[in-house]
Amino acid sequence: MSLSQRILSGDIRAAARLMRNIDDNLPSSRTELQDLFPHTGKAFLIGVTGPPGAGKSTLVDQITAAYRKQNKRVGVVAIDPTSPFTGGAILGDRIRMNRHADDEGVFIRSLATRGHMGGLSRSTADVANVMDAMGMDVIIIETVGVGQDEVDIVRLAHTTLVVMVPGMGDDIQAIKAGILEIGDLFVVNKADRDGADKTARELSLMLEMNRYAEGSWRPPVLRTEAQRNVGVEELVETMDKHRQWLMNSGEINQLLREKDSSLLQTLLKERLFAEVYDRIDQDGRLREILEGMQVRTQDPYSAVERILGERLNS
Fold first, then answer.
1. What is the dihedral of CA 59, 63, 65, 70, to 10 degrees?
2. Which of 27, 62, 182, 295 could make an S-S bridge to 154, C-beta 3.0–4.6 Å?
3. In three state form, how does the secondary structure of the chain look?
4. How confident is the model at residue 86 (pLDDT cuts 50, 70, 90)?
5. 298: exposed, middle or buried (Cβ count in 10 Å: 0-12, 13-18, 19+)
């Protein structure tokens, strides 16, 4: 049996192996993903983003436990930063979520960014699709926590949760426009700290400055203490309300179109770049171009035009 067939029959080891192959970018994984794709599209994808130290992993752990109480199967994709020097990563989220290790209804996969920008790993969408095909009801994707540029998650998740924390200096400056635009829900975590009310109030005021069409979703600001499991039940209820709104309003159709378009564009860019780059590397033109650029007899703009022209005419 192929890995995809074994996954559809409930083989967890096969799923783990395919996810490793996807992360290693093995060509064989593409065939397996093709076979699994018709079996995807049923899971509820939740994106969790926000700055480092906001308690995202602890909150994800509590959200996972809350959905398990509802007897829902939960997949977690946790993204960790990669060292720019060694290429290694400390995949610490498995340690924080260790209590779910023996729960057959929870599957946790840590991924390293490997230089990918935007808070996600290159293989995040594909790994989420494998979990979807496995029959996970809810898939939680926790971004790496690099700052205010983690907007890729909005192209993947159905509901995007932005986690903030009081005491990070100038709260207004910590809340950038990009984060405000992608959030479906905002959470002030560690709400027992001084300044939590101020942070929540400023967030609410900034969100009120946005213009909302009649009947559109207005992102709420919630407070949680993930360490003590305070406010998590209300958070899960609000996420479920957002999912219901997506379905009832028909917004889910536009969201899914954008999600599919983003996936197609990403795959197309990767394949075209890999094929073109490998070709000019193997035939020696890459070295010639780089040497010409060093002595300024070649410019990269003309080189790219020539390469693309050859590709389009081939």
1. 170
2. 182
3. CCHHHHHHCCCHHHHHHHHHHHHCCCCHHHHHHHHHHHHCCCCEEEEEECCCCCCHHHHHHHHHHHHHHCCCCEEEEEEECCCCCCCCCCCCHHHHCHHHCCCCCEEEEEEECCCCCCCCCCCHHHHHHHHHHHCCCEEEEECCCCCCCCCHHHHCCCEEEEEECCCCCCHHHHCCHHHHHHCCEEEECCCCCCCHHHHHHHHHHHHHCCCCCCCCCCCCEEECEHHHCECHHHHHHHHHHHHHHHHHHCHHHHHHHHHHHHHHHHHHHHHHHHHHHHHHHHCCHHHHHHHHHHCCCCCHHHHHHHHHHHHHHC
4. very low
5. middle
Angle, helix 124-134 to helix 12-23, in steps of 10 degrees:
170
Nearest alpha-carbon partner for 285 in 304, 268, 266: 304
Q: At residue 35, does pLDDT exceed 60? A: yes
What is the tens place of the pLDDT at every residue in 241-256? 999 999 999 999 999 9
Rg (CA), the chain: 22
